[in-house]
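Supplementary notes for students who missed Thursday's class. We covered one full example, reproduced here. Read the sequence, then the structure, then the short commentary at the end.
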Amino acid sequence: MVNGKRVVVVLPAYNAEETLEPTYREIPFDLVDDVILVDDASGDRTKEVAERLGVKRVIAHERNLGYGGNQKTCYRKALEIGADIVVMLHPDYQYTPKLLPSLVYMLANDLYPVALGSRILGKGALKGGMPLYKYIANRVLTLVQNLLVGQKLSEYHTGYRAFTREALEGVRLEENSDDFVFDNQMLSQLIYAGYDIGEASCPTKYFPEASSINIRRSTVYGLGVLTVSLQHFLQRIGLARFKRYRPVKES
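Structure (token representation):
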């Protein structure tokens, strides 16, 4: 625990057999109370590796639910077991667990309800091997998103995120996609609901075993991000209403 708050790390896993162990070994268990791994019907031995490493809470989907569907299971389970702070960490070893204390302390000390590990602050992205086309797309999309949603984040596309229980319970996660655009829909919801977001500079590593989407999927993702940002803008100025942004307390 940190400041009396229960910290849970969730690992949304898909074909992470080769990278799960180094990721898990770096988790700082002096401040992490529990780890949940959700295996999204992997075609490799991800589940077996997790059990060998001693991950106490392993959930295996019988069919692939997608990246967003995996996260929904992660967050539901984390809240169910009493998490006060939930950190989403990819088990592909692209993001170092060594940064986890920085994210957790921002939340545990009530500085922010949401914290992101940003690859763009500093020189972490290109230095870590991010393909140039992805870096350029990240910068362009982030600029457009900041303008449309009225924010000033360095990036919206990192997979390293920490949330307070209040933040997770304060938005309608089930209204979001089960695909990769889930991440952006979730941030859009949190921003619209008024949750402040902190960022910490995060080094990252790109290598063959790390998960990545191809150019076609990246294009679909980019179009989805622009759609989410436009919807947020229309909602913000009152020209449209989307169920995703309705307060949780409303029926």
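Commentary. The chain has one domain: 7-241. The beta strands are 7-13, 34-39, 57-60, 85-88, 114-118, 161-164, 197-201. If anything here is unclear, bring it to office hours.
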